[in-house]
Design a protein that fits this description.
By secondary structure, this protein is α/β, with parallel strands linked by helices. It contains ten helices and eight strands. The protein binds SN-glycerol-3-phosphate (G3P).
């Protein structure tokens, strides 16, 4: 369902730097580096750009969210079925900037599983991560909200939340892959994440806002 560890999942969010064709350009850079190096790089463009990015690259493309809705009436919602039809192979769920009630997270994970979509469920804390592990998503990504978008990596500012989440999640379901994110910027941060037991990282601004994303991505994967 997903590539080798560690995974580097790049969330494009809705930064102006990735609007329109710029999303495709960034996805193509990620794609080209992944093909060249064998690194497992996943991109998460905004919903409106999902389809044409997924049509244009070979690396996994995830949506940034889904709603627990079946096809039918539901104006403005995004069903897992729509995401799959757009060519995505997975989705983020419950990002800190787009939270859902726990039961909705569980419903989304199950609907995605039924469709063969990978799921990366986000959690703010060790406790939330442990609770959401009962739904057995493919990934759980722990991200302290106060560090998101900042310059200090979670692996430096709060290494305990990374190792603690790995331990807590694996105590519920050892097959879930644990990621960490918030402030991750370079290869040292990724290496530290892996040393702390994580199976990859989820990041955004370090890549999407970079003047030279090609160089940043190559640095991110230099130790993996
Ligand atoms: O989804 C990734 C994100 O929340 C972390 O953002 O900008 O701190 O890498 P950033």
């Amino acid at each position: 369902m997903s590539g080798k560890d560690p995974a580097v999942i790049v969330n494009f969010k809705v930064y102006s730097e990735i609007e329109g064709e710029k999303a495709l350009r960034l996805a193509e850079i990620c794609d080209s580096i992944a093909q060249e190096t064998g690194a497992n790089i996943v991109v998460c463009p905004p919903m409106v750009e999902l389809s044409y990015v997924a049509d244009s690259v070979d690396i996994p493309v995830y949506s940034q969210n889904v709603d627990p809705r079946k096809p039918g009436s539901g104006t403005g919602f995004t069903t897992p079925s729509l995401v799959k039809s757009a060519g995505a192979s997975g989705t983020l769920i419950n990002h800190s900037e787009h939270k859902q009630p726990a039961e909705d997270v569980g419903a989304c994970v199950q609907m995605c599983k039924d469709l063969g979509l990978a799921t990366c469920v986000c959690a703010d804390t060790i406790e939330v991560a442990k609770d959401l592990a009962r739904f057995s998503p493919y990934y759980i990504a722990v991200e302290p909200p106060e560090l998101i978008g900042g310059d200090i990596s979670v692996t430096t500012a709060n290494p305990g939340i990374v190792s603690g989440t790995v331990e807590a999640v694996k105590s519920v379901d050892r097959d879930i892959k644990v990621l960490c994110g918030a402030g991750v910027k370079n290869g040292n941060d990724v290496k530290t994440a892996v040393d702390l037991g994580a199976e990859g990282v989820l990041l955004a601004s370090g890549v999407t806002k970079a003047a030279n994303p090609d160089a940043v991505i190559r640095d991110l994967i230099k130790y993996i």
